[in-house]
Amino acid sequence: MSDIIDKAVAALSGRLTGTLPGSAKFVLTGAGALMIDGAGVRAGDEAADVTLSAAPEVFEAILRGETNPTVAFMSGQLTVDGDMGMAMQLASLLS
Prior knowledge:
By secondary structure, this protein is α+β, with helices and mostly antiparallel strands. The protein has one domain: Nonspecific Lipid-transfer Protein, Chain A, CATH 3.30.1050.10. The chain has a 5-stranded mixed β-sheet. Strand 1 and strand 2 form a beta hairpin. The longest helix has 13 residues. The radius of gyration is 12 Å and the shape is globular. The mean pLDDT is about 90.
């Protein structure tokens, strides 16, 4: 597992303010993936209801609040595959 994934798991674990009704996967291009579900946040690359993919630097900028996820999505820096409603719920849980 990469340092980027370890840091992302730690950052997301501290920011989740609720329970996601399903599963989500963040794929950090070239670095690995992490899962968010009822069990919490962990490194993993399993099937999920929604998969969000971005370069590690884009993901880190979103976590720091420097990049708006909607802007990243609209500009093609962040891709979403699967349940768009779940992606929107995830965004609200992380705020």
